[in-house]
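#help-structures
NK: newbie question, is this the right format to request a structure? protein is Universal stress protein
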Amino acid sequence: MLTDYSRIVVPYDHSELSKKALKMAMNLVKQDEKIELYVVMVIQPEIQLAYHYAVPIQDRREEQFKAIEPIREEINQELLKLPNKTRTFVLEGDPARTIIDFVRKNDADFIVMGSRGLSGLKELFLGSVSHYVVQKANCPVLIVK
């Protein structure tokens, strides 16, 4: 079924739908050991102010990276169950644009992602990140609900 794909990307934000998307992607890559699976987590940078709620921005940034490490380790443990080549990435930037840039730079040919993530704002059909990715991706995108 997936013989046309060699590299699948899963944007992951620890939401229930991103967990579901990761499980689906893992099931898909099991069909062919040659398919690589990349899990991408994006940390959004703070507004460029010297302090954010009385915490220096650099300290806040370090807190974000420290907070994501246990999640990354949890994902890595799950990925060990696969015979496929897998990697996790923690990137920084606007989530939607960072995901698209990553997909292009890494020649990914399939994206599996949740229909919405942890954002407090909800759009009518798709979350803003998934909507952007669907519109801008140069490869197929599977949206998990």
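mod (FA): yep, format's fine, and the tokens are attached above. The first helix runs from residue 16 to 29.
NK: thank you!
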